[in-house]
Amino acid sequence: MYGQFFLLFALIIVGYYCNKKGWLNRETNKNMSSMVMHVMIPAMLISTIASLSVNDRILKVFLMMALAQILAMILFGLLVRLYARFRNQDRRLYPMLDITVASLNTGFLGLPVAQIFFGSEGVLFMSSGVLSLNLYLWSYGVCVIENKRIEGLQGMKKTAKKILLNPNCMSVVIGMVLALTGAVQFVPAAALEFLKKLGDLATPLSLIYIGALAGDSGISSLFKEKVALEFSIIKMILMPALAAVVLLFIPADALVKSVFLLSMALPSAIVVPMMVEQKSEAKRS
After folding, report:
1. Residue 97 domain flag
2. Is the dihedral of CA 170, 171, 176, 181 positive or negative?
3. Can you give the residue range of the structural domain that contains 277?
4. How many domains does the chain have?
5. If you placed Cys at 203, which of 45, 112, 216, 258 could pair as Cys (CB 3.0 to 4.6 Å)?
6. Phi and psi at residue 22, to the nearest 5°
């Protein structure tokens, strides 16, 4: 276990060091992030899930975990709103706080960490969070940010398109289909090996990116934003603590509980600030 912790923080430190040396500046880091999200992580998802023996029980657990993560994000977002009201925060911040604090970075950070600590099966169960996050963001999240409901068939189609065309969601579905149908045996071994080698880069590059991001932002600046720091502490402590209490009463495998608890302890999804900014610009225009 200590070896995994060393690997996790060592890769983050490498990213931090490279940023401070000027080798990973903001633009380079941004490009690396896009490459990891759209190439490496999809390859890891397909190669990992397709190689597993997925039976009815595992599929059921997968779907139940996705549903549980969606419910957890919605419920915790509502708790955050109540806390923000108690602290007399600006009401205009409520939608942003709701979605940002409750969202889970199950893709960019969750998958690499699950790979380090739990291996292939951990990646499978954590990938349920990829589906749940996108379902949450492009349905409930959009409604909260825009302060309106998804109405009509056209609205539903637009939402479904956002979810289904996400490369990580598509990769989870492809991997599941290959595993469940046994069609993976018809995929050339060279192609699977290529996807595996490409996917193996996801974990180190993701963590190096996190380290470079910390170096670019400046760790000391994180402590100057009091509101952000306050709600970050609530998210990183209260959300996993509540999940741990609930898990005491849920009959499930140790691995399933561990992956779910890990997902609850993850920081906010990187895509959320981008969504909020885009919606804000659209309103201003």
Report:
1. yes
2. positive
3. 55-198+221-284
4. 1
5. 112
6. 85, 10
